[in-house]
Amino acid sequence: HIFYQLLRGATEEQHHKYCFHDGLTGGLELANYFQLTGQGGAPTLREFTDEEGLKYTLKSMRSMGWSETKVDMVLSIVAGILHLGQVKFESKMGDGGQEICQIADEKTVADAAKLLGVDVEKLTTALTVRIIVTRGDEIRIDLTPDKAQDARDALAKTVYGAMFLWVVQEVNNCIMWENDKDIRSSAGVLDIFGFESFAINSFEQLCINFTNEALQQQFNKFIFKLEQEEYERENISWAFISFPDNQDCLDTIQSRPKGILTMLDDECKLGQRGSDKNWAKRLNETYLPERNQEISDNTRYSATKMQQAKGIFCVRHFAGNVAYTAGTSFLEKNRDEIPLTAKALFEEDSSDLIKEIYNVQVSASEDTSSAKKSGPAKSKTVSQQFKAQLTSLIEMIETTDPHYIRCLKPNDAAKPKLMTRKRLTEQLRYGGVLEAVRVARMGYPVRMDHSGFFKRYRMLLPSVGEDRLSWSAEDQDPQQLSEKLLDIVLEEGAKPTNYENEDGSISRANQIRKAQRQPEVMVFPKEDVQLGKSKIFMRKGPHDKLESHRVFHQNASVTLIQSWMRMMQQNRRYLIMEDAALTIQRWYRGCLGRARWWKLREAQAGQLLTNNFRMQISRRKYNKLRAGAVLLQALYRGRTARKVVAATKIQSYYRMFTKSKAFRNLKSAIVSLQCRVRQGIAKKSFEQIKREAKDMGKVKEHNEKLKAEMASLKAMLQAQAANDAGKEKYDKAIKEKQAEIDRMESRIAQLEAALAKEKENVKKLESDLASQKEG
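^ that's the sequence the OP posted. Answer follows.
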């Protein structure tokens, strides 16, 4: 993860320092741009961010006492490995006409050399040239572009592997004690890969599965040891029990001289003559010597004719058969040698940290045990290193008290509440859990204490009375009760099943048992159930039969209890329904009584209403007759009274008419006389008004003339006042004239008012005269 953490968590200053040029990536993120980080297909993780991961990594480095300089140098080497993966090669023609390579981008190599702390020219040589030493002479071979890419990847892998070993050593030096002898106890955690089986399996899968085989053997021994201690502690006979052992599989992989890894090391010693094909051929000749033989004598190695032709062989592990493809560079991966050019690169003209890291790599790969005193140490192959580390690990585990934790991944989608059955089964098989279960089942897998055994299985003998076998374990020895129970169970199990009583009747419980599916007969060897000092040990067969009979009796008891419960429920339901029916009946009777009472009340009310209605009808008839009689009397009396009144009125009207006629004649004569007199007076008044009206017209005409004269006089006076230099002399005359004009205007106004008044009087007289004429 350090590559992704550095690319994403580096500061702006570190980006320039480690030559992470974001502008040259073509818009890609750095993690997708670099060759070593862009091939995995998962540049981000869901669990945590790389920025936070870099902070935790730097915090861990500083907590181990690393200086800032050392931290910076380590990060520089990591950045150098990233730039080393970016080196590209071009093809050109050599002096001999063959195809050779050259560096396509010199700046990338310069950045990688600067960050790694090595010489640029020697780094270029290590990438483009291969050195072979034969009989003390060096032979330099120019590499093709494809071979140069392989050399680049091998060099990056070497640097990273050496730095990884150096970091592990630094961490161990930081946490280790000065003297191992002073350590009295320690605790360790071993986290390993599970069993692996892919479509194409190579050297890595063989090593991982070899480790799982060895750890599974240690686990089986551990289980066997625990079982043995348990049996001896309980005084149980266990000599007949055999536990499975996978030592033959381990021998097939590592034994000398015919082990798979041993022959792989022998093939690596042949140098250029060794090949994956020859190694696979030697394996088939060793384990399948007979013609048409496809499975070895120990059944651990197998290969069909088709597989042999393709260089494929199979190893039967504890978790299943795995096919390994020999053509996947087994020899190259097992050698894992440091190229001579890389040795020259790291040993000379390199930084102190690179030299220190390289020394750790060299010390881990050297075989000092087989080295001569005067000669140099030989390098160990990967399988040799792996076997040595595995042997040391097994020895350490055997000296400790191990505890095992199996982690299961429910699904590959990392989603909650989703469990894939096939995936879990594979993990249980590959993790050795199923193998451990098989080991446990070879002995007495079921263990129960005496009291629990008696309480659990006493119910299997319901027909056995209290006098023969007690139902309670209180104040009694549970071991003796369990032994007696086991004897009676075996004795009763051998007898034929009979559910009838002595009188031929069958109880309800036995009827239920008879109707159910009958379990397997409870007959088994007594040796399959061992009574220990504190526990009872049972094999799977007896336990399954006891459990099947227990389930059988439990089902019968449950069915009986359910029948009683259903009876009680039905009885309770019946009582409830009976009470409800009685309640409904009482309510219904009450409703009928109330309806009957209501009808009686309605009948009484109807009778009362009928009586009142008839009374009202009779009363109305009486009132009508009485009113008719009164009216008839009133009409008669009124008629007679009106006759008298009419005669009186006629007399009075006649008298009034005679008097009124005389009065009207007199009044008409008086009015005619008055009109005549008033007519003469009116004529005189009219003549006088006509004369006055003529005089008023003259006055009005005279007034108009005066107004005209006054206007001309005003104009003349104004003209004189404007032309006369002595204005003060004429002011008095102007005021007098103005006063005279005002008096004349007021007089004219008075005359006009009088004229208007006279006109009104004339109109009034005319209207009176007209009315008199009409009258």
